[in-house]
Amino acid sequence: MATTLQRQLDDAEATVERLKLQITQGPCIEAGHAWKFVGGKNAGCNDTCSCSVPVHVCEKCGDSDYGETDEASVIRDRCRLIYEHEEG
Ligand SMILES: [Zn+2]
Ligand SMILES: [Zn+2]
After folding, report:
1. Which ligand is closest to the CA of 84, given by its number?
2. How far apart are CA 81 and CA 75, in angstroms?
3. Cα–Cα separations (whole angstroms), residue 24 to 27, 37, 82
4. Are 4 and 25 in contact (CB under 8 A)?
5. What is the DSSP letter of 59?
6. 56 C-alpha to center of ligand 2: Å?
7. Which ligand is nearest to the CA of 45?
8. All structural domains of the chain with their residue ranges
9. In whole angstroms, what is the distance from residue 41 CA to residue 65 CA?
10. 54: which DSSP letter?
11. Which among 34, 62, 76, 84 has most CB atoms closer than 10 A?
12. Residue 33, SS3 per DSSP
């Protein structure tokens, strides 16, 4: 039965290699994105907005969050409050 065991081992090793690859290269849905800060972009909250929100790109899959992060939400909320306050 050595050949069967060998084949099972080969299958297991192939699975390990596949999982390692998935962890290092994605899918990031399972392992999570490896976000890297690449710069800021205008938040565009309103006409007078001059806020900059951080944009990140995943080092593994190249996906971008397009500045749609919790951090950006806080910046936009703060900007809106200031804007509404200035408008009266
Ligand atoms: Zn990713
Ligand atoms: Zn703004």
Report:
1. 2
2. 10
3. 9, 18, 42
4. no
5. T
6. 18
7. 2
8. 1-31, 33-88
9. 12
10. E
11. 76
12. coil
